[in-house]
């Protein structure tokens, strides 16, 4: 099922800017009563509050907060005007810059107060790329096996199901990432989005394949026979190939060839066992008691 954007149908520029919502104007009441002095109305004021959302998910990135307060002039009123409001700060390392928005401030008389809400919608850099595909050149595929640290369990007095834990390689890396990033900087032919932002998006797309190959502990249930020591030896297949990445950004399709990709494939765990059956398996102070080397 195709995932819909939080703000479906929003344009590229609007996605990086904001939406000014309906301004709410409050008016103070001046109650007239017999023999009661007139109440002096307070000077007019206007408050602009802003909220920042993730364009795709609707997650609140910066909760509603006051970003601007407009005070009255010497006559206690506010003339109709406009104000440019910048997006409030939020943790935006993964997001494209959000443009400022021009907000209309209504004419306000004494005793009136305006609340002007503004919503900013920030777009993740990677999500700005559409129709991302990776095609692999089959003639470039090479595989190698990487041995991870073996682990040993047992012996036990009875057959036992054990959740063994072993090291496996996971992730991927772009071997020639610097060359690819330099190539991306020569590609851009943007329309509405700035060239700088398109470059950020394309680099981020390639960067999703450059998370690095890491060692991760994994678990698997195996049966250890009684009076047996079993050593498990995990081996990860590393696959190297040359791929082409294609992505559409701001309505323009970009092709990034010659991406040298190195990724971790499946990890296969082989086992070797040593039987202790028939041994004088003692307990307590007996020198033959206990587990095998590295036993768990």
Automatic annotation (TrEMBL):
Signal peptide from the UniProt entry: 1-17
Residue ranges with Basic and acidic residues bias: 273-284
Keyword tags: Signal
Region of interest called Disordered, as start-end residue ranges on this chain: 267-296
Superkingdom of the source species: Bacteria
Designated name of the protein: DUF3869 domain-containing protein
Organism: Phocaeicola vulgatus
């Amino acid at each position: 099922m195709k995932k819909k954007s939080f703000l479906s149908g929003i344009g590229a520029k609007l996605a990086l800017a904001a939406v000014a919502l309906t301004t709410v104007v409050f008016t103070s009441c001046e109650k007239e009563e017999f023999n009661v002095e007139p109440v002096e109305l307070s000077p007019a004021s206007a408050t602009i509050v802003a909220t920042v959302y993730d364009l795709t998910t609707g997650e609140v990135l910066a909760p509603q907060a006051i970003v601007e307060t407009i005070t009255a002039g010497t006559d206690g009123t506010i003339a109709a005007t406009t104000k440019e409001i910048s997006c409030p700060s939020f943790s935006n390392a993964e997001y494209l810059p959000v443009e400022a928005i021009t907000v209309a401030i209504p004419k306000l008389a004494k005793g009136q107060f305006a609340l002007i809400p503004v919503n900013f919608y920030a777009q993740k850099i990677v999500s700005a790329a559409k129709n991302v595909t990776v095609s692999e050149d089959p003639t470039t595929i090479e595989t190698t096996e990487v041995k991870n640290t073996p682990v040993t369990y047992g012996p036990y007095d009875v057959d036992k199901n054990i959740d063994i834990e072993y090291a496996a390689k996971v992730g991927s890396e772009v071997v020639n990432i610097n060359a690819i990033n330099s190539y991306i900087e020569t590609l851009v032919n943007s329309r509405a989005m700035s060239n700088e932002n398109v470059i950020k998006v394309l680099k981020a797309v390639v960067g999703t394949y450059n998370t690095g190959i890491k060692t991760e502990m994994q678990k698997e249930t195996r049966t250890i026979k009684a009076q047996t020591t079993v050593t498990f030896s995990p081996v990860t297949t590393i696959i190297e190939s040359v791929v082409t990445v294609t992505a559409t950004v701001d309505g323009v399709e970009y092709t990034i060839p010659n991406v040298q990709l190195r990724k971790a494939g499946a990890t296969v765990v082989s086992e070797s066992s040593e039987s202790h059956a028939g041994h004088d398996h003692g307990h307590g102070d007996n020198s033959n008691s206990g587990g095998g080397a590295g036993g768990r």
